[in-house]
Every structure is written in C-alpha cells, then in structure tokens.
Design goal:
The chain is an alpha/beta fold and 313 residues long. 36% of the residues lie in helices and 23% in strands. The chain is built from 13 helices and 13 strands. It has a 6-stranded mixed beta sheet with strand order 6-7-8-3-9-10, with helices on both faces. A 4-stranded antiparallel beta sheet has the order 2-1-4-5, with helices on one face. A 3-stranded mixed beta sheet has the order 11-12-13. Helix 12 links the parallel strand 11 and strand 12. The longest helix has 18 residues. The two termini are 41 Å apart. The relative contact order is 0.14.
C-alpha cells in the first residue's frame, strides 16, 4: 500500500430524490498524492456529500471517483474502506472499549498480531500527542480534544493512504481547536497522507490546506487553487465575498520569515524564523521599528523590513 493516494473527481453528480437542485453538480478536480485538500463553502454546497462519496457512504449518480487510477465502484467495499481513514466531528469512539482497543479496531479486523497491534497503538498515541498510559483509559475519561486525538489515531491505525475528515474540530473550543489544527499540520508533514478535509470556515481552510476547493450552493465548484492563489486572485464576486476582506494580510500569514530572501546583517529587535510575515509586519508597526532581526538562537539569518512585505505581495 502506498503512503498517499491520488484522488480524482471526474464530472461527479449526485442528486437526492425530491430536490430540484443537485447536491453535487458535475464536480471535477484532481487531488495529488500527499496533498491536504480542503472542501469549503456555504451550507448546501455539497462538501460533506462529496467527502462521503469517496468511501461510498453516499452513492453518486454519474461520473467517476478514482483512487490511484482505480474507479472506486470497482473496488470491494471492505477493501476500499480499509484503505481510508475517516474522522468525524462526533469522533464516534466505542464507549465500552478502552482507548487502546478503539485505536486497535482496524488492525484487529486485519488480523494483525497482538504484538504488532500493541506497538502500533502506542506509536500512534504518542504521534497524536497522547501518552502510552492513555491506552487503558475510557473515552468518558477524556476531554473533547483528547477524544478527537484518539479518533485521529484510530483513523491512522492501518496506515491508510487517504484520510477523510468531516469538520473534525467544529465542536471544540477555540483554544483546543487551534492546538489540534497545529498538531494535524505537523502530522501531515510527518506521515505524508492525502487528506480531504471539510469545513465551513474559510480561515480554517486557508490555515490548513495546501489546496482549497470552494463549492457554491448546488454543489458547483467555484474555484480550486492554493491558498495564496485564492487570496491573490478570486475568480468571481462569490469567491471574493466568501473569502472576505483583508486578503493581502491573510496572504502574509501563509509565509514565515525563514521562507523569504532576508537582507544581510542585523537590524532591529530579534524574532524567530518561524514568525509569520503578517506577525512581523504587525510587530514592526507596533514597535515603530524600521527592521527586525531574524535569528535562530544566537545565529543571525538576516533582517526583514516593511518594504519586503510589499514586495512579497
């Protein structure tokens, strides 16, 4: 099994009986292997319907969905779903089972050995920021954020090439949500899976995705682009209004200082290389400084000036 899968929606349409408008209408997009693709849009945009069609929780009427070139309707349902991790907002942990047993659900179905299963459970709990001792606890003993981490570990248990995530952080408080967003971005860098992530929050989409598909009502694809391209050049008024204002500043939040060609030398207060350009601009204005020194510990990498942000845009 590959570590990540390419997903292709090829003119996919889904209509529900009794509704005039399609839930998803002629959807075509390609998600490269290892990409983090976010489906976002208003209610009625077909985001969750599109997601659930990938693992055939919802059938579609026409078109094709292909995983690594294979039409999903030609795959045995059990084989298809065992190659896909699925994470939902409500988590869906089995309350009568320990955390460890929840994470081990799919490996046991695949008849892994007890030793291999146990090692994988501990590995995954630590990967998602929990402790090995948490394997013996029950879901009722965990916070909402911890349960969501267990759900993510369970989805990763059999090392699937694809993760489907349906508004996984929507029910969490803002602080916990931010922590898990940060953790998920780290996990994506580390494990390299293809992720399809559904949210109604454009800020979450911009923060999380390396590709964003904006769906308008009726399940029509409005624009599919990188976050930077989306912010720089919305395709029409609907996309521009959905994204909202401050597009230039939000673009600056996508880049960190260590990604820029810095000016040589040391000038002004010191900041860390991972500081976003937006935060650097804010700090320059707050301090009424001409420049900032970008330093990794004692090592000076260069300096950053307000004009550098303008050039970046």
């Amino acid at each position: 099994m590959s570590s990540a899968a390419e997903i292709v929606f090829d003119r996919v349409t889904k209509r529900y009986p009794g509704r005039d408008e399609a839930a998803v209408d002629d959807l075509s997009l390609e998600i490269p292997a290892g990409a983090f693709c976010v489906l976002v849009g208003p209610s009625g945009g077909g985001k969750t319907t599109a997601l659930k069609m990938v693992n055939r929780l919802i059938p579609f009427d026409s078109g094709e969905i292909r995983i690594d070139g294979r039409d999903i309707r030609t795959l045995p349902l059990t084989e298809l779903r065992r190659g896909i991790g699925y994470v939902i907002q409500q988590v869906g942990l089995f309350p009568h089972m320990t955390v460890g047993d929840n994470v081990a659900t799919v490996p046991r179905l695949l008849r892994w050995s007890k030793r291999r299963t146990s090692e994988r459970v501990i590995e995954l709990l630590e990967l998602v920021g929990l402790e090995a001792a948490d394997a013996k606890r029950y879901p009722s003993q965990l916070s909402g954020g911890q349960r969501q981490r267990v759900g993510l570990a369970r989805a990763l248990a059999a090392d699937p090439p694809l993760l489907l995530m349906d508004e996984p952080f929507g029910a969490l408080d803002p602080i916990t949500r931010h922590r898990l967003q940060t953790e998920l971005r780290r996990l994506h860098r580390d494990v390299g899976k293809t992720v399809i992530f559904v949210t109604h929050d454009i800020d979450e989409a911009i923060q999380m995705g390396d590709r964003i598909a904006i769906l308008r009502e009726g399940g029509v694809l409005a624009q599919y682009a990188t976050p930077d391209a989306l912010l720089a050049d919305p395709v029409d008024d609907f996309v521009a209004q959905f994204i909202g204002g401050d597009r230039a500043l939000r673009r600056l939040a996508l880049r960190t200082l260590d990604e820029l060609p810095l000016r040589p030398g040391e000038s002004g207060p010191r900041v860390a290389p991972e500081t976003t350009v937006r935060n650097a601009v804010s700090l320059l204005l707050e301090l009424k400084a001409d420049a900032l020194t970008v330093a990794d510990g004692d090592r000076v990498l260069g300096s950053f000036r307000l004009a550098d942000a303008s050039e970046l845009l």
